[in-house]
Write a structure and sequence with these properties.
globular, mainly beta, 7 helices, eight-stranded antiparallel beta sheet, single chain, 25 strands, 364 residues, Thrombin, subunit H
Length: 364
């Protein structure tokens, strides 16, 4: 039996005006909504949940699938929904996909890179789990990997400001979590993606704000409705969205992430990155090793993820036995967290799938 203790996705509801004030910076005043019980109100389909001891132990034993980095497989076709932000028209479509795992390289940094853009020390694992988030400093922010991670803002069906993370995978194509773009079967409005400059003196400024032209989610996620009272298995399995921007020439400025489908994060290190509310939306990273469990659609991880980080990338650090080179691949998307006795015990992420990669290729 799950017990909801906090409506806590990783995209955050911010009352008042937009964070994206202008090209010179964020609002310095960030307020939150408080309910009658004194709890913060978050705009989300993804909840923190509390589990009993026996349930936690059983889930861990049944899903302890470690030390395997082979690719999994996807279906031959799938249905998706396209939402046009200008016309508000929703269209259901189908696409054929490749069945084997695949990697989509970016144009700047990809397979063969030997140094990560994100901090790689003090890793969480099955033996230790704590808030190990650290700021991504200026030197790393100047690298394409970090500057490709962006902030996504929109207004939900109640016209409340919602803020989450996102990342660029190609010119004009951004990935975020599906629950960041849709709730109560209604797509959000005023969708914008902001890219953060490589400038330590003004960490909260945004140099470029892009409008979202089209949004793509799986039909299964759209049909589930995303009603906030719980996050169903269907929603967890399909918690990703593609955002098509109104510009297509920004990759040379901000870079983009190499994405790979169906990696299991078996015995590798990885970073979960995003813009948390509790650090004024500065980019932070949590470093960890091993997935707690995984299936063909999602992971449970030892990275520490908080509000605002939903939709940010999970980047795995791998070693190629043939070329003897280290390389980084974005393998997942931050989605949710789980609490026990008011303490976070793990986080969840959606797996980058062949469905996502093939749809992105088709759109591009």
């Amino acid at each position: 039996m799950y017990k909801i203790i906090l409506c806590c996705s990783f995209f955050f509801y911010v009352s008042g005006s937009s964070l994206f004030i202008n090209s010179n910076g964020f609002s310095n005043q960030i307020t939150s909504s408080i309910d009658n019980n004194g709890d913060l109100l978050y705009c989300s389909s993804s909840h923190s949940i509390e589990k009993k001891d026996k349930e936690v132990d059983n889930e861990y034993k049944n899903n302890k699938s470690f030390y395997d980095s082979t690719s999994l497989y996807s279906s031959k076709s799938f249905s998706y929904v396209q939402y046009n932000c200008q016309t508000k028209i929703i269209t259901e479509k189908n696409i054929s996909i490749t069945q084997s795992g695949s990697v989509k390289k970016n144009g700047n940094i990809g397979v063969g890179q030997t140094t990560s853009s994100f901090p790689t020390n003090n890793a969480n694992s099955s033996n230790i789990f704590r808030d190990n988030r650290v700021d991504v400093d200026f030197i790393n922010m100047s690298k394409y990997q970090a500057s490709a991670v962006s902030i996504f803002e929109s207004k939900n069906y109640n016209y409340e400001n919602c803020v989450s993370s996102s990342f660029l995978i190609w010119n004009g194509m951004v990935v975020t979590s599906a629950h960041s773009v849709l709730s109560h079967k209604i797509f959000n409005t005023n969708m914008e993606v902001g890219f953060v400059p490589n400038d330590i003196s003004n960490r909260l400024s945004v140099t470029q704000i892009c409008q979202v032209k089209n949004v793509y989610v799986t039909y299964d996620f759209y049909n589930s409705g995303c009603y906030f009272n719980s996050m169903s298995e269907i929603e967890k399995n399909n918690d990703w969205a593609l955002l098509e921007l109104d510009v297509n020439n920004i990759q040379n400025t901000y870079g983009s992430l190499t994405i790979g489908s169906n990696y299991t994060l078996g015995d590798v290190y990885y970073n979960s990155i995003g813009f948390p509310f509790d650090d004024q939306f500065k980019m932070q990273s949590s470093f960890a090793k091993y997935s707690r469990s995984y299936d063909s659609n999602k992971y449970t991880l030892y990275s520490y993820i908080t509000n605002g980080m939903s939709g940010g990338p999970v980047i795995g650090h791998y070693f190629d036995n043939e070329t003897l080179e280290d390389y980084d691949v974005c393998v997942g998307i931050n989605s949710y967290n789980v609490f026990y006795n008011n303490t976070m015990i793990y986080s969840g992420a959606n797996m980058i799938s062949n469905n996502l990669i093939c749809l992105a290729d088709f759109i591009i």
